[in-house]
Amino acid sequence: MFHRPTHSRSATAACRPRFTPRPLVLAAHLLAAASIGWATTASAQATPPTQASAAQQRSYNIPAGPLNTVLTHFLAESGLLLSGSTTLAQGKTSPGVQGSHTPAAALAALLAGTGLTATPDAQGRYALQPAAPAPTANTSGAATLKEVTVTAGAERSGTTEGTGSYAASSTNTATKLHLTPRETPQTVTVVTSQQMQDFGMTSVDDALQAVNGAFVAAQGNNGAQYFSRGFEMQSQYDGVPNPGGISNNNRNPQIDNAFLDRVETVQGAAGLLTGAGQPGGTINLVRKRPTEAFQALAEMQLASWDGRRIVGDISAPLTESGRIRGRVVAVADNSKSFVDYVYRNRRAIYAVAETDLTATTTLEASVQYQRDTGRNHLGAPFAADGSEPGIRRSFFWGDAGQRTVKDYTLTTLGLTQRLAGDWQAKATFSHNRTDSDISRYSYARGELDVTTGDGLVLGRQRSLTQDLSANAADVYVSGPFQWFGRKHEAAFGLNGSTMRHTYTGAGYIPRLPINVNTFDPSALDDIPGATPYFGDTKTTQLGAYGVARWSVTDALKLITGVRVSNYKDENLLTKRTSSEENGVISPYAGLIYDLNAQVSVYASYSDIFTPQTRKTAAGGTVKPVVGANYEAGIKGELLDKRLNVSAAVFRLEQTNLARRDESIVPDPANACGGTCYIAADKVVSQGIDLGASGEIATGWNVAAGYTYMDSQYASGARNGERYGPQLPRHSLRLSTAYKLPNTGWTLGGNVSARSKIYRNDTSWDTGKPYTVRSGGLVLVGLMARYEIDPKAELMLAVSNLFDRTYRANLENKYYSPFGEPRKLTANLRYRF
Question: Which tens digit of pLDDT belongs to each residue from 536-547?
């Protein structure tokens, strides 16, 4: 095993990262120039919006054009509030509107001939929807209705960009079926585009910290580990397996949110679409897509510790017909840290294009590139007895000459074919690669004597290079079918992945004793070379899955599914297979009953398997660990589907954990190669999840949740002991933002709370047990956003308002990071 590396902030100007935004300035100029060209058809007489009433008349001069573009100009001028899927307007042309009209009449005029209409609610907010079909006469003279085809649009795709809501309309992360959260019989949480914008979430880690029941075990720029219900989670990109993880285990950079439309999580075992993995759940990163109408934005952010960030995002049809669409998002982000010497510089770009090859065939391709350069910090030590030593949060425990570079590239190619009967086939292939280069890696360890300052030593390594390469593919068909007079839905597919991880380390030199009172990170000499070590592993997965949603009655739906998986893990240096499993069955079942049109109750079962490497007396590996999730709950879509609510109870059982086979005497010559094991132990995690997300009143968004989780060993010598105490039993998340009527202001805040956590472990040096602790924690943040005009807005935010000192993660006694102190952020967004 190798340790995770560090990065830091230089003490001299020569070592400080320099911010050179000139390429982004040029991009901003290009964006501005492009926007002028696209906007020449708009009226030069646009005025700032007010909350117009339906009785006010004003003059409009908005020419014909793509409906999305016309609506954007009209809403900016009229001040009306319009909700509904922007995808409903895609591909449609508006006649525009000219002359003097009330806002309601102008809106009706520009929608003429589009097949859409907009109706107001009691608060005067309009909703875009398909128009009622007009009656026609048939040959017998009876009135009939014209055939109308309605595309579900964003409600089916789940797109959250532009909705202004914290509520998700659709998700297929759990089953490949496009279901609403209420129709999905598992706990699903979606962090939408609007929620990420409101609270300045710039990374996936930021978004996951807003997911109730999820725990982000931070490790600085080394990445993080992600937990739910007591266990780790795996990840996907756009529903396709992501075997390399997000930033796990110091391999990939922390993924930037500028590329994402939303972050979806399914909590609990999710083996149906995953195969082998961990039972905590699945994180699905859903990226932005090209739009059928032009849109662009530029964003600049300033933050504490010299944080400077620029984002440019432009999307448009690339041909007059709109059959080819493209989008480019570029990021430059420089950030220092509250920890001395630590910094992280990021340059990233995401480019995606879609082409309608025919009326039913769409080809898409994308490239995502990110380069993070920085100096990291693993964390600060505890005292020898596990207590807090009273050291500064900002103190750097490493080598000031350390440097980490991570280059990440993700290339994706997809083909969607719409078939007869509302079926579709989709094939996606992705290739990602991360090259990382870590130099002068150091970390502190030892038994700290707080009285003298002695006891710590630096473990030091000259270099560590890693190459992570992964391929993933997913091919499936989905659609409705009729059986016994009722309509049902199904999806069938294959997915799989290969991941190869190679690394070379220069080896560790003898430990360097340090005194915490006199240690100077900038005084360390270069590290000489040492005996190198190497690694080269390959993991392969392949599985076939099928799932169906049966309409038993109008109110009762049954979801059944199964996956058959093969798995292989190889050490390419030794030419040995560490573990291999074939034909592993992962079933899925869910029952949903609609109490009424808004509320459903459900029960479900899902599981996932984790291969093991321990050997049995027969010489084979112990059979896989199985993580089985049992869940029951109630879900609702309230306030005209603007608010999703849920309550669930769960029990997650992890069985077949390896236990030493006491009937076999350890012997290096036996079939086990020493100690033999059996599949015998068990862990149980159970609790409750409560959640709500969406709009509780006009302009008032809320995302809230509470989780209680208790994990215990359920067998063996540790039966009844707490499992994973470094994860909190109680956690609460609340984010809210309210748009004050007629003021341009949106005010909000968030609260994150957890119960105390602790970790029991054994000293690396003395072999004695120890315990480190972090007490209960409540963090409060505030935000305010002001709409300067219809195109520009300024956002101000503060996190950790009361400047609480806490450990963000209990890694071990030697290095566990402090959480971020109070942080201020200012963000200016301009839409073209």
Answer: 999 999 999 999
Buried-state track 535-552, b at ≥16 Cβ within 10 A, e below 16: eebbbbbbbebbbbbbbe
Q: How far apart are CA 365 and CA 359, in angstroms?
A: 18
Characterize the bridge pairing of strands 508-514 and 456-483: antiparallel
Q: In this structure, what is the dihedral angle of CA atoms 485, 158, 323, 363, given to the nearest 10 degrees?
A: -80
Give me the residue label for tokens 């195109």: 791
Q: What CA–CA distance (Å, rounded) separates 550 from 594?
A: 14
Helices (H) and strands (E) counted in the chain, each on its own, are 6, 41
Backbone torsions φ then ψ of 20, nearest 5 degrees? -120, 85
Q: How far is CA 102 from each of CA 57, 58, 428, rounded to the nearest angstrom?
A: 4, 6, 48
Distance CA 269, CA 282 (A): 8
Rounded Cα–Cα distance for residues 661 and 775 (Å): 38
Q: Say what percent of the chain tops pLDDT 70.
A: 87
List, for residues 182-214, the tens digit of each pLDDT value: 999 999 999 999 999 999 999 999 999 999 999
Closest CA to 544 of 480, 594, 592, 477: 477
Q: How many CB atoms lie within 10 A of CB 218?
A: 23
In whole angstroms, how large is the CA radius of gyration of the chain? 28
β-pairing verdict for 757-762 and 745-754: unpaired
How many Cβ atoms are within 10 Å of 367's Cβ, its own excluded? 13
Give the predicted TM-score (pTM) of the model.
Answer: 0.83
The DSSP bridge pattern shows strands 777-789 and 324-336 to be unpaired
- Token reading at 46: 């646009």
DSSP state of 198: H
Task: Write out the two tokens for 684.
Answer: 């149980």
Under DSSP, the state recorded for 618 is: T
